[in-house]
Specification:
- The structure is a single chain.
- The chain is α+β, with helices and mostly antiparallel strands and 184 residues long.
- The chain has one domain (28-182).
- It is 27% helix and 42% strand.
- It has three helices and ten strands.
- Strands 1, 2, 3, 4, 5, 6, 7, 8, 9 and 10 form a ten-stranded antiparallel sheet that branches.
- It starts with a helix and ends with a strand.
- 22% of the residues are buried.
- The model is unreliable at 11-26 (pLDDT under 50).
Length: 184
């Protein structure tokens, strides 16, 4: 009788350990896609998500912005490393992503990635556009984690009451990500 109880406790503990490990692994995801810029050749993109942003991290960013201003905010924002975009096939860019969210959608999920504004067109650079300082990637994925997305190079963000970030507006025409699929 005692051995049976010990086995149940050990199996329960192993189950909890496994559940904890799979939750932390689930936060890590990698996708590949094709980027269509409208200028130059199509590029391959790897999107690697290490973790998602927490409401506490966003609350802290809001506090830094309110108390210390934009420069301190961008320094704190740049310290958060949530994901990366790696462009191959000509661009050779590696863009850091500093905030990331996944939310349920009608038939799958949407993933929002936020980084510092950067041009992804070959041979061009961004000009200062008065506060439009963020690069935003929106992935629209089905239940099999396949789909498409958009990359906004110069966007403005806002904080929500739920301690998340969302895109307020964008002055750039979005670049298309097609054939977004998970990397196995």
């Amino acid at each position: 009788m005692r051995k049976n109880k010990e086995k149940k406790i050990i199996l329960f503990a192993l189950g909890l350990l496994f559940l904890n490990m799979t939750n932390s692994l689930w936060a890590q995801a990698e996708f590949k896609a094709r980027l269509i810029t409208g200028v130059g050749p199509v590029s391959n993109v790897r999107i690697k998500i290490e973790s998602y942003s927490t409401p506490d991290e966003i609350r802290q960013l809001r506090q830094v912005l309110a108390a210390q201003g934009e420069y301190a905010f961008f320094a704190a924002f740049g310290q958060l490393n949530k994901a990366s975009l790696r462009f191959t096939g000509g661009l050779g860019l590696n863009i850091g992503i500093h905030a990331a969210y996944e939310i349920p959608a009608d038939n799958g999920i949407k993933i929002f990635l936020f980084g510092k504004s950067q041009s992804i067109d070959p041979g061009s650079s961004l000009r200062s556009r008065g506060g439009f300082l963020f690069l935003i990637v929106v992935l629209d994925l089905d239940k099999n984690f396949k789909g498409e997305g958009k990359v906004y190079e110069t966007s403005r963000i806002r904080f929500t009451n739920l301690n998340t970030i969302e895109m307020e507006s964008s002055v750039s025409v979005p670049k298309m990500l097609v054939n977004v699929v998970p990397v196995k």
